[in-house]
From TrEMBL:
Quaternary context: Heterodimer with SRP9; binds RNA as heterodimer. Component of a signal recognition particle (SRP) complex that consists of a 7SL RNA molecule of 300 nucleotides and six protein subunits: SRP72, SRP68, SRP54, SRP19, SRP14 and SRP9.
Protein's organism: Balaenoptera physalus
GO biological process, one term: SRP-dependent cotranslational protein targeting to membrane
Name under which the protein is recorded: Signal recognition particle 14 kDa protein
Main location (coarse class): cytoplasm
Task of the protein: Component of the signal recognition particle (SRP) complex, a ribonucleoprotein complex that mediates the cotranslational targeting of secretory and membrane proteins to the endoplasmic reticulum (ER). SRP9 together with SRP14 and the Alu portion of the SRP RNA, constitutes the elongation arrest domain of SRP. The complex of SRP9 and SRP14 is required for SRP RNA binding.
Domain of life: Eukaryota
Cellular component aspect of the GO annotation: signal recognition particle, endoplasmic reticulum targeting
SUPFAM superfamilies linked to this entry: Signal recognition particle alu RNA binding heterodimer, SRP9/14 (SSF54762)
Amino acid sequence: MVLLESEQFLTELTRLLQKCWLSGNVFITLKKYDGRTKPIPRKGSVEGFEPSDNKCLLRATDGKKKISTVVSSKEVSFRWLIQTY
């Protein structure tokens, strides 16, 4: 999966949507992201991890190509996303 900056993500998302406009699907998912890059161990406590401000992991795929970006939760607006496309 490719982690992109916000502007690059929107550019690539536009390309995916244009490519799949007549035939195909694009799946967009949004998930809370706390900044962890490793899974939480089952036993023991996680020490020294301070979550930063709330962030969201935004992903898009057409089944072949996957793109993603991390944005602040304050920047995320479904209404904006739907109106854009």
